[in-house]
Write a structure and sequence with these properties.
The chain has helices at residues 49-60, 65-68, 85-96, 99-107, 114-129, 137-143, 155-167, 169-184, 200-216, 220-227, 250-258, and strands spanning 2-9, 15-26, 33-43, 76-83, 231-237, 240-245, 267-268. With 272 residues, it is of the alpha+beta class. The protein has two domains: 1-69, no CATH class; 82-226, no CATH class. A hairpin with a 5-residue loop joins strand 1 (2-9) and strand 2 (15-26). Helix 5 (114-129) packs across helix 7. The radius of gyration is 22 Å and the shape is elongated. The two termini are 17 Å apart.
Length: 272
């Protein structure tokens, strides 16, 4: 459980901030964590501070003696932050377009292991988000991007994914092209140098980014740079690990709404 604040904009343009006690539960259909309010303390400018202090004293009865002497500021430490919005957006587009289905159809047999399909997505995402990056893919995942699903990616997965892309390039690109054309209901033009059979991750990245551009009316560099500003910070709070997304900016919300996407949950406490 944790204390959070939310802001509501009134019709007259004024903004009111509310204080809530919440915890995270997993969405029953979509599987991501979402905040559930346990109790609302009301408006921040009308808080009963004395009552909150009594609550803190009451809760502290269950602490060890030494824990009671810690100040809140001393108990919070920042670990790091990583970009989370870009990979979140691309994964949504990948699933919406049925890119794994395209992959399975292009290969036919033997079945593509889930870990290899996931690795193909990571290769494509890096081309979309950091095409000029010289970092090895695993280092990029660990240091620059927050995405838990890629934590178990190995060198063997990379080799197998790259071999698969090389051996089935034309069939995969044709299937992916048709999937995007069905989605955007228009012919797709891609940058020069991404002809069939060459730079498969780059070409698939181009298909994803084109879909995002059509849906939002923005260029991919604008979408990418804005979504990469959606960060996930990692903290140690009172000896426990906490992850929290940065507040959603207006343009980020506009992009997500245009793509009919849910934003990441604002508060995401888990064990690191």
């Amino acid at each position: 459980m944790y204390i959070r604040t939310i802001k509501r904009k009134n019709k007259d343009g004024s903004v009111v901030e509310y204080v809530q006690l919440a915890h995270n539960v997993r969405h029953p259909q979509k599987g991501y964590p979402k905040a559930e309010v346990i109790h609302s303390f009301g408006r921040r400018d009308q808080l009963d501070i004395a009552a909150l202090k009594r609550l803190v004293v009451s809760v502290s009865r269950f602490f060890e003696p030494e824990a009671k002497t810690e100040s809140p500021a001393a108990a919070v430490s920042f670990v790091r932050s990583r970009a989370a919005g870009g990979i979140h957006l691309l994964r949504h587009l990948w699933n919406r377009l049925g890119m794994n289905v395209c992959l399975y159809a292009a290969i036919e047999s033997p079945p593509v292991p889930a870990a290899i399909a996931l690795t193909v997505f990571v290769l494509v995402a890096k081309q979309a988000l950091a095409p000029s990056s010289k970092s090895p893919i695993r280092q990029w995942l660990a240091e620059d991007i927050f995405w838990d699903d890629g934590a178990d990616l190995t060198e063997r997965h990379l080799v197998q994914a790259e071999t698969l892309l090389r051996d089935h390039a034309d069939a995969l690109q044709a299937a992916a092209y048709e999937a995007v054309v069905r989605q955007v209901a228009a012919a797709v033009s891609l940058p020069d140098g991404q002809a069939a059979g060459t730079d498969v991750p780059g070409r698939l990245a181009g298909l994803l980014t084109h879909t995002a551009e059509v849906a939002t009316g923005l260029t991919w560099p604008v979408i990418r740079d804005e979504m990469q500003r959606l960060q996930l910070g990692e903290f140690i709070v009172g000896g426990e690990s906490l992850r929290r997304y940065s507040p959603l900016r207006p343009l980020q919300r506009q992009i997500l709404d245009a793509l009919a996407m849910d934003p990441p949950p604002p508060d995401f406490p888990i064990d690191l």
